[in-house]
Structure formats: C-alpha cells, structure tokens
Amino acid sequence: TGSSYPSNNGNLNVPRIFTNSQKEVLRLIGQHLQSVGLNKTVDFLIHESGCVLEHEQASNFRELIMSGKWTEALVALEKLKQYIEERDGIQQMKYLILEQKYFELIEDNRAMDALQCLRNEIQGLKIRIERTHELTTFLMFNSMKDMYRASNWSGKGFASRQNLMEKLQKYLPPDIMLPPKRLETLLSQAVELQQERCTYHVKPGKLKLDDVSLLKDHACNKQTFPCVTIQTLTDHSDEVWFCKFSPDGTKLATGSKDGCLQVYDVDMETYKMKLRKQFEGHSFGIGCIAWCPFSRYIIACGTDECNEIWIWDVEQEEQRARMNHSSEDSLTCAAWLPCGQRFVCGGSRGQFYYCDIDGNVIDSWEGVRLQCLHVTSDGIVLAADAQKRISSYKFDSLTDQQIIHEDHPIMSFTASKDGRLGLLNIATQGVHLWDLHDKQLVRKYQGVTQGHYVNHATFGGPNEEFIASGSEDSKVYLWHRRQERPIMAFSGHTRTVNCVTWHPTLPLLFASASDDATVRIWSTPEHQMKTESLSGNESST
C-alpha cells in the first residue's frame, strides 16, 4: 500500500465516531505512550483514531521549550495567549521561560548575556521583584555546584526543561495541553481509593502503582491481618482489668484484681512478650494504667474504694511516689500531660486533682465525679463524668466546656492521636465514635455485648482506621472505622474481655485482657508461625 501503517483489513478510511470520554482516554493513552518513548505507536494512534493529543500550537510550543529555543518559544506563547485563563498567566509563563534561559546562560559561562537577559527581559516583566533580586545573586557563585544547590535547579538539560514544561502546562487548559502524567495521576488516585476501601489493609504508608496489579482491584485478605493469638500471658492470678502498650512500644503493662502490675518487654521483631518486672501491693486491684509520654513512669489506679495511686519508675524498677491526699478520696483514673512532669487524676466521689510527678496536688477542681480521663497532645484535659458527659478542662484558667452528652453512662473513652475523634464505651450500648471538634456522633458500632462493666476500646492500625473492643461475651470485636458491623470477632478468652490495646508502632500487633486472668497477644498467622518456630528452636537446644 506504500503506507507505513498496518492495513487493518482496509478499514482505515472508515471514519469512526468517538464519544468525548473515548477521545479523552485515547489522548491519555497517547500521552503515556509518548512518555515511555513509543513515538511511532503514538503517530499510528493519532493517524488511526483521528484524535490529536494536544493542540498543534501547544505541541510546537512544547518542542521549542524542550530544545531550548527561548526566543521562538516566547513567540509561540503569544499565539497561545487566547487560551490562558489566568489574568497574569502569560506574564508568569514568560517569567518561568526567561528564568530557565538565564540559568542556562550562566551554566554556559555567558555571564554578560545572562545579565542582559536579567536586566532587559526579566526585569521588563515587572513581576516577582523579590525573586528577580534573588536571581541576581546566582551570578556571584564561583562554582556551578553551589549555584545548583542555592537555586534548587538541576542543571541544563532534559530534566530541568521537563520540570519547566510541567510548570507551564498548569496555565494551559487540558483540552489545549494535557496535564503532565495524567494517566499515572488517575491510576494513583484509583489505587489510593482502593486502599481506603480495603477492609483489612494494615500496611503503613500509601500504596504506589508499583505495589499493586492494575489488572484487578486491591484487596488484602484476612491472613495478612492480626487475627490469631501468638502468645498467652498467664502471670496474673485473678481478673485482668487493664492493659496498655507504652508510647514508644517497647513495653506492655497489665493490671489485675490480684493487686499486681506486670510490665513486659516487647520483642519488636518476634512480638514476643517477656516479663520484666512485677510491682505488687495494690490492695484494691488495678483498674487503670497511665504511661507517661516518655515511657518511663506508670500511674496505677485502683477501684472506687481506693483512695491512693502509685507512680512506678519502670527503668529503676521502683516506686517513684504514692499519692494519698485524703482518706475520703476515690482515685480511679489518671492521665499524663504532654510534658511528662504533670498529671491529672480523680474518681467517682468528686475528686479531680492536677499534680506534679511526685503526686503533690498543684490545683483541684471541685464537684466533678470522674469516670475516665484523657489528655490531648496539645495539653487539653478531657474528662468523662457521672452525668454522661465529656468536657474539656483548662486548669490554668479554670474554664470548662461540654463537648459530648450521651444518653447512657460513659464507662470509658479514648481519643485519636490527632485529638479529633473520641471512642466511647457506653453502658448497655457498646462502642460509639464521636467527632470531638464538631461535637457530632459519627457512628455506633454493632455486635459487642456491653452491660455496666468498664470496658476499654482502642484505635489501631497505621492511620488508626481500625477499632477494637472487648465484650462481655468473651470475644474481641474489630471494626473498620467507617463500617458499623464488625469485620472480625476473635474467640480465645473464656470470660469477659475488659480491655484491648493496639501497639503504637507495629500495626500487626494488639493485646487483650480478660476476667479469665490471661492477656492474649494477637498478630498475623505469619507471625504465629515465626514465634512457634523460634520457640521450637529454643526448646530443642
């Protein structure tokens, strides 16, 4: 036929009618093929489809920029003027082109020409005056390397011109010139959305295009999720009421009705827990544990009858302080301030104290019967009270503000790391999620059995997108934050599960404490195999 294109059964001359979306897809494919260097294929695509990748003048403009023909590029830009919507867009584009010209002249050791460009062309635009003054300084450098570093410019050539082209492209509408890497951008957005919607996704960080197959939707399976017990801790002799990983993740503390506080070291590789120290003498048991932000000190609180709290130094393995303000007190909850030198504590009989690290009362708040305490990363004290409310308290100004009011008693609560979301365990109702900023109930999670016992839920996963809670039916329930129905329910405990804590840095690890006197460590089947093979090796030696 004399044509360089395949014959396609002689149907090339039959005009095809494409919808607008089909044309756009063809343009995106063409742009992608062009970016990977398949230019002959692009020519054939344009020839066969009749779709043009970009406006002819825009295409010409791109070629001139990429070959460094600055004077001609500025003339070509004038022809594109009618398509530029931004008020001073044409001036900004000229500035970017002349800036590239200026840098390339400096690199070519043409200092006088560069100075002429700066004085006669760049300054003549009368925009970005501060940047123009800055450009003057780049003429003074003795070495090119220093100039590159100071100007954040990659040097003359394809990369810097491509970068310039991407900046210029933003001023032109997409029907004239496609935005850079548009197909890749759309596919990345699709992968991001799939990751968001993936029920079992626990890997930290954002998925990239190379991490997935584009031929099917991304979906993790249950096997990649922490769903099996890899270790059962049996050091307590009675009901375990509380468990909490330290903020740095290196330790796990557990508190029990038996009056003991157990502290375990966490093996960050195998996720194995090893008992480090047992602190005894809490005659009313331990119903609440608060780690200081630096993971050194622990406050241990008892039940309603308990009028004192203990502050333990985990590093020195000794008691730092024992606070006993009044024999009438009930001190059942505590939380550290971000400085790690102050804490708040209180209980159901109306005590609410602001203390130093040795338990000396600095200030107090009268008449608030506390159920639970939490301090946000910016130092705001949040407290749940017996009136089914959560309020914020500022001790420096003695001001308080109600945030939440529930219809049933709030048994416990915690907040997300950014302080935006509150996770509440509500008597007879289960787990509720609140937006603390907007003061709105976001979601009620289904499935859990909750009576009038205190239960502690937790956020978990790399972006706190999971929620876990114990239940009075002996199970651990797990939800994706955006779904009201549980995605998993874990069996293993034989009595009520009182508390769940998720590891702060290892998204595949959490722990649960139960009335059956055990603490279960949960991870993935893969980690279960790893710990079993390690213990097998140890026992055979």
UniProtKB/TrEMBL annotation:
It is found in: Cytoplasm. Residues 54-113 form the CTLH domain. It comes from the Eukaryota. Coiled coil: none annotated. GO terms for cellular component: cytoplasm; GID complex. GO terms for biological process: proteasome-mediated ubiquitin-dependent protein catabolic process. This is CTLH domain-containing protein.
